[in-house]
Amino acid sequence: MAVTAVKTAVKGSKSSRRTATREERRQQLIAATIKCISKKGIGSTTLGDVAQEAGLSQGIVNLHFASKENLFNETLQYLAEDYKAEFDGALDKAPPEAANKLLALMEMDLKPSICDRQKLAVWFAFWGEVKSVPTYQKMCEAYDRGYDDAINALCQTIIDEGNYKNITAQTVTDALSSMTDGLWLSYLVSPKGFDREVAMDAVYSYLRAVFPEHYE
Q1: Which residues contact 65 (CB under 8 A, 6 or more apart)?
Q2: What CATH number does domain 1-66 carry, 1.10.10.60, 1.10.10.350, 1.10.10.10, 3.30.1330.60?
Q3: Is the pTM here over 0.90, yes or no?
Q4: Quick one: how far is CA 216 from the chain centroid?
Q5: Higher pLDDT, 19 or 75
């Protein structure tokens, strides 16, 4: 499910309410759910809120998702698939060297389509619920595991190439993941004080410190 499809569903919601396909309607409702959760949080968002945001009846929401649980699960799934598509695209477009691919992934994490306050608010909302909702926990863990495995493999290749000592791929992976999460949170909380170039400089400085032969 592409993010552009969701955006298109939102833009065309008023003019195509009677002619939208089932998939377009579902995407429209997921887009509305993202907006509602970003503004009100998970606990305060109701199916009525989503219906109102989408300009549809609550019966339409029930028809397509049957329950709030199903709608929220599919919204989280959409976010995960959206991120994976960007992640895979960054890997495919980057030069073949591991160092270039790792840098491309770090840059991707800070691009506007990923480091987006609305999306980040929803991501953090779901992460905040993982302890009490097993389904969210399973989905978020799968996302985290895929991210960590890819980053870890690239870091291990760089370590082997540069014969770096006293550093492990997992240590660098954990540091990069924590740095990204921290930068995302910083942007979410203080958007006016956030500078993407400065944030990327911080990430690059860390990579240069641990892998000096690869990042000059």
Answers
A1: 26, 29, 71, 74
A2: 1.10.10.60
A3: no
A4: 29
A5: 75
